[in-house]
């Protein structure tokens, strides 16, 4: 089964954000930080006050961590930073939770399934649940000062506001008349829910199950769920929740998307497999070769036709009108069975994907190839009802040799050659207890950011395809 967003990518559908449709108009937020502070302080009639008493014991910090050893270590470092700041302020030690340790369920990273736990555990002694990413940097005194402006007895959804400049198919053209009106939080800057709102959402979750099958962009989906077609609060922009640290009043900043973990992985330790088909040998492959292919130490092109001029490898798998499961598993088996024993990493991309090999080398230096690593842009299917996470294929999929070895040692295989390869892989790895590791450096949609490792170039003359 293939998600609507995934199918659409082949018809120029990105897959970076989320799912529902609705309409509403909210006030635009000034980009000027000082002006936002002034505006925010003038909202006392809406329940904002500068004198709400709060200390660290009233905040439960939730770091949106992952179980992979690199990410777990980064989250633990942030936890220790928060605890040290609390000690320096001679305040009671706050509760700092690592998301991957809170629950073993597959969908814990989507936050909403954990709200009942937060409601039961923290509603009596806490005022706020504050969420942040592992690379978020927090200044505790500024955070406390910012939160004191908001009455914790009311329902608040706080964060740094993002909005779409134009309607997009990945949001199912939500707010198509004016997409800028709907605000959703930048997770990198941190975001917060007041306990009354957590309790309200918990009641809703108990009375009705989550309806969306696919989790594409959690930020947007959570904002839509909380807003609830106008029955819930919209996101309130907090100017002190920052990512670039342009103002001394910032309570949060964001470190960097591109981690540096020592010497980059050598090119000879990365094997790149490009999926293509005969109909695109003439227009897509030349662009791949003219852009990034020359950076790769090992690269092969896998097709349904052997073309010596490229050259391509015919895997013996017929081209399909949808899905590439048979082709992808053939690539995985070839990687293990051929003379690639000394190559630690396999990267599988489409013929309309761009890669920065140098950034990929830096990124992979943070991961242990002896561990089963399945890395890319994480999506989810049916996570509200026991589904699984998967790496979307359009943004590139990275496998450690150990992950491939365990996968092929299992009996999990494609149910047909044209099954969606990325979803089948996610289901298989989930069954093996190998989690998807998410990185914001992989994107199925074109994102203009020099730090990204993999981009899907909808703006270039490499048009997405429905057939290979």
Explain how this protein is built:
The protein is of the alpha/beta class. 27% of the residues lie in helices and 17% in strands. The chain has 13 helices and 22 strands. It has helices at residues 4-9, 33-41, 69-88, 99-102, 115-122, 140-147, 195-207, 218-227, 285-291, 325-337, 357-364, 401-409, 421-431; strands at 59-63, 95-98, 128-132, 136-138, 157-159, 161-162, 184-185, 191-194, 214-215, 236-237, 252-254, 270-275, 298-303, 312-314, 345-350, 354-355, 374-376, 378-381, 388-391, 397-400, 436-438, 454-455.
Give the N-terminus to C-terminus distance in angstroms. 17 Å
Shape: elongated
Biggest sheet, spatial arrangement of strands: 14-13-12-15-20-17-21
Number of H/I helices = 13
Query: SS-based structural class?
Result: alpha/beta
Number of strands: 22
Q: How much strand? A: 15-25%
The major pleated sheet works out as: 7 strands, mixed
Fraction of residues in H or I helices: 25-40%
Radius of gyration: 23 Å
Mean pLDDT: 85
Distinctive features:
468 residues; alpha/beta; 7-stranded mixed sheet; 6-stranded mixed sheet; disordered N terminus; disordered C terminus
């Amino acid at each position: 089964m293939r998600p609507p967003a995934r199918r659409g990518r082949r018809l120029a559908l990105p897959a970076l954000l989320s799912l529902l449709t609705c309409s509403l108009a909210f006030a635009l937020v000034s980009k000027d930080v000082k002006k936002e502070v002034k505006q925010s302080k003038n909202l006392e009639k809406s329940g904002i006050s500068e004198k709400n008493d709060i200390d660290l014991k009233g905040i439960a910090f939730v770091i949106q961590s992952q179980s992979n050893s690199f990410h777990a270590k980064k989250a633990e470092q942030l936890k220790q930073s928060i605890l040290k700041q609390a000690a320096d302020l001679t305040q009671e030690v706050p509760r700092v939770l690592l998301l991957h340790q809170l629950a073993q369920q597959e969908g814990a990273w989507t936050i909403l399934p954990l709200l009942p736990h937060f409601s039961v555990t923290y509603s009596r002694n806490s005022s706020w649940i504050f969420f942040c990413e592992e690379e978020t940097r927090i200044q505790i005194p500024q955070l406390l000062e910012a939160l004191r402006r908001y009455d914790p007895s009311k329902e608040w959804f706080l964060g740094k506001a993002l909005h779409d400049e134009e309607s997009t198919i990945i949001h199912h053209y939500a707010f198509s008349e004016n997409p800028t009106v709907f605000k959703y939080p930048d997770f990198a800057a941190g975001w917060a829910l007041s306990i009354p709102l957590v309790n309200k959402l918990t009641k809703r979750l108990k009375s009705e199950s989550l309806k969306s099958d696919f989790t594409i962009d959690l930020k947007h989906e959570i904002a839509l769920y909380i807003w609830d077609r106008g029955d819930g609060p919209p996101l309130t922009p907090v100017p002190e929740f920052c990512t670039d640290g342009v103002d001394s009043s910032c309570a949060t900043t964001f470190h960097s998307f591109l981690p540096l973990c020592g010497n980059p992985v050598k090119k000879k330790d990365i094997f790149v497999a490009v999926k293509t088909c005969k109909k695109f040998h003439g227009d897509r492959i030349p662009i791949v070769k003219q852009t990034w292919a020359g950076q790769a130490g090992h690269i092969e092109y896998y097709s349904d036709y052997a073309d010596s001029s490229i050259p391509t490898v015919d895997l013996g798998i017929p081209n399909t009108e949808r899905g590439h499961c048979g082709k992808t598993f053939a690539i995985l088996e070839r990687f293990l069975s051929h003379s690639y024993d000394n190559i630690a990493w396999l990267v599988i991309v489409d013929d309309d994907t761009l890669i920065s090999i140098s950034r990929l080398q830096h990124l992979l230096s943070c991961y242990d190839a002896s561990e089963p690593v399945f890395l890319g842009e994480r999506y989810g299917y049916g996570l509200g009802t026991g589904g699984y996470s998967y790496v979307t294929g359009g943004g590139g999929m990275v496998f450690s040799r150990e992950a491939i070895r365990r996968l092929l040692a299992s009996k999990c295989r494609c149910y047909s050659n044209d099954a969606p390869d990325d979803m089948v892989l996610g289901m298989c790895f989930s069954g093996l207890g190998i989690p998807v590791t998410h990185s914001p450096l992989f994107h199925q949609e074109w994102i203009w950011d020099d730090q990204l490792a993999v981009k899907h170039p909808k703006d270039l003359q490499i048009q997405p395809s429905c057939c290979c």
